[in-house]
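Researcher: For the record, we're logging two predictions in this thread. I'll number them. Prediction 1 follows.
Model: Prediction 1, sequence and structure:
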Amino acid sequence: MAKRSAKPLKPRDFQGLKYVERLLPLLDQLHDVGCQRDRSGNRSLHYDQYCMLVLLFLFNPVLRSLRSLQQASTLNNVQRKLGCARASLGSLSEAVEVFEPERLRGIIESLAAEVKPVRDVRGGHLAHALTAVDGSVVKTLKTIAEAAFMNDKNGGSHSGWRLHTHFAIDRHVPTRIEVSAAANSGHNDEKNRLRAALQSDHCYVLDRWYAQFTLWNDIVAAGSSYVCRIRDNSNLNAVIEERPVSATAAAADVLRDFIVDLGAAKKPDERPAHRVRVILVKTTPHTKRGGRKGGTAGPPSDGVLRIATNLLDVPAEVIADIYRHRWTIELFFRFFKHVLGCRHLLSTHPKGIEIQAYCAIIACLLISLWTGRKPTLRSYEMICLYFAGWASLEELLDHISKLKSEET
């Protein structure tokens, strides 16, 4: 059966662009980025306009490819609202090699400063900003040859990119994404990427991959703290101090709380240079069922979470709750790939992927600012319906007001 051609886009498919217009003053500072190469002065697609088109792609399910985005740029309504002219497919493809992704970080910081905490996980016991850190791979097939000859044992392609992400747990928004090759090794190892991006006054919430003593030392040296799960087979025999488990902690499934001496005595340079506290928390046992399709590739668990931290004075139940909220970054990855449509990349160029990732962060921040709550599928769908003209502004505002009333 012949493949049906896509229906041409119409101006009415792009109603409700006034929300995106809010970004125009912030994006103005990007207008001249990349113009140094334009000696003839005939550049028609500027950085701010490209970002607005990417945001239009993220907020409108009608757009599914770079070609559809190019078609959208020909519509009068899009040109008028976004302040851009018709963009050729070549201009959209070439743009990512000229523009600078890191210039979007200042805009992200400006918007993130406006987002209020959704909830206080810390309970007033910790001043550091809770930041979950993890990486996720977005796969893409760059060539037919890679699809045919570079598959893993499960039939998946090795062609992909890893997104090294920092996620603000209290505000439920991402604050930083860096793009690297998919291989989690060498300079692109998630531990090394975190080490290079450490900031002060953050509490980094980490999974087992980050259980590296030298990384913990670097976090503490940067003036921050960590809450990190360690492996089930960790040697915890050198107990320095056993701490009593309060009734409140026991009710939160805390089994044990103690200070321990970690690391081999023969490698003093690789041992923690600070006191390490370990908290054992009861959880659901998990058995690995294999990495093939239909199985579970994650490591097994004996039903006990072993959480290491340098926070010696924070109640054990708060530490346990902080680690439980590490899962919010996994929910964001799902939202990022499946809801915002970032499983499909507009570009396979590293800069293009990073720009799309940063624009996705901006999209999440806008949803949080509009609704006053964490980005959800329902809110995203309602905004998309408004953009497509199926929902009125009053209906969108009514949806937002219901969310805020549920919060109170």
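Researcher: Logged. Prediction 2.
Model: Prediction 2, sequence and structure:
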Amino acid sequence: MARKTSKKTDNPSPDAMPARVDPCLATLVDKPPKGPDWAYEVKWDGYRLAVHIKTGRVRVLTRGGYGWTERFPTIADDARRLAVKTAILDGEAVVLDDLGRSDFGMLQRALGRLPSAVEAGAIVFYAFDLLYLDGRDLRRLALRERRRLLEPLVAGREGTIRLSEEVQADGDEFFRVACAHGLEGIIAKHVEKPYRTGRGEWWQKITCKRRDSFVIVGFEPSTVPGHLGRLLLAARKGDDLVYVGGCGTGWSHELSRELRNLLEGISTKTPAVSLRRKNAVFTKPVLVAEVEYRAWTDDGKLRHASFKGIRQREDEASVFDMASLRL
């Protein structure tokens, strides 16, 4: 009698869990899109992260693909408590101020880059998408369906991992309210679209002010001994860096001294850009400044720039690319 060698099953084979997913990025637009297919969220001011959970093991990756699990231990610890076997959460790590607004400078201090009373436990991870869950790749599903699966996992939690709430509202009014409350801006997402790597029109960001990241290539000392006068900044242009001006505001008296000490520790005799400035101290291009500004000059320099915080350049995806600038 022949022995059965196979058994018919209705259960599909599980999807392989990707080791990394290049993130979906929002396109900057002037006004929120309109229509019932759009949902809105607060634009968080922090670090974009992907949290990978696999049978109790957690990895925290930056949007550039770097492993920062050890820098976000509270996120990793809380991820192990979620009721999942395998999952990939997409979201933003932030620190909230007294008014509930995300503050990038406070996040930097919580991560220990600069001296601070802000503790690492103050970091919150706002999850806004679910890319993989218990053997199923969700990226092909519409955002509406991905959110339906995400919400039961993280909604209502008071731990480190929380839900980034969607707002069903008039986009123009939500944007006005967000700016009035001092938020960075809002994100609009098309609820019927799948998750697509890269920058596209299905996710849009509307910011209250222009804000980007630039490589710190040097500084000018202040007339006050031991303090910072001006940061010298650069953007990407192809494979090179190009000088885009500087900023001399945005820091307190205490932070000015801390930044000066930090930058003196990475000073170099070899400038990363073609630039001659009297009294300039050049630095290795390893740190990135978050800068808020109003506009660009005709010759490609920042106007009315103000310092907001520091990133490490290893997350290269965030550095401003001059190819995106239309002068």
